[in-house]
Amino acid sequence: MEVRWDVFWIIIGSALLTFIPRVLPLMLFSKIQIPVWLLRWLEYVPVAVMASLIGQELFMDGNRLVPITDNAALWAALPTFAVAILTRSLLGTVLIGIVSMMILRYWLA
Q1: Burial (Cβ within 10 Å: 0-12, 13-18, ≥19) of residue 80
Q2: pLDDT digits (tens, 9 = 90+) for 6-34
Q3: pTM of the model
Q4: What is residue 30's predicted lDDT score, i.e. its pLDDT?
Q5: Measured between alpha carbons, how far is 101 from 77 in angstroms, rounded to an integer?
Q6: Residue ranges of the domains in the chain?
Q7: How big is the CA angle at 24 (ends 21 and 27), to the nearest 5 degrees?
Q8: Where would you find the membrane-spanning parts of this chain (predicted)?
């Protein structure tokens, strides 16, 4: 098998570009003491990111706001969130989400 050097250097460059942003903060934050207020603030970042991703997916279609009456994803999310909160089961949550969306698309289509 022949090695194509351009592909090889692209792979090496991509590896470095994904490795450096992960390692540099780790090296930096392992040397300094992070204040308690910053640690408390950083705990909310994953929740905020997830909420923004879910909110955008549920309420927007492209660049327009989807009306609640026509929003199958929002109606399917309601039982899905309920199952997620009550059972804490990933499998159950995914299954309820899929079944809810299937039923709503059947009724709305």
Answers
A1: buried
A2: 999 999 999 999 999 999 888 888 888 88
A3: 0.60
A4: 84
A5: 8
A6: 52-108
A7: 150
A8: 6-29, 72-104
CA distance 107 to 100: 11
Q: How far apart are CA 73 and CA 102, in angstroms?
A: 10
pLDDT tens profile 45-100: 999 999 999 999 899 988 889 888 888 899 999 999 999 999 999 999 999 999 99
3-state per-residue secondary structure call for 33-93: CCCHHHHHHHCCHHHHHHHHHHHHHHHEECCEECCHHHCHHHHHHHHHHHHHHHHCCHHHH
CA-to-CA distance for 73 and 34, rounded, in angstroms? Answer: 40
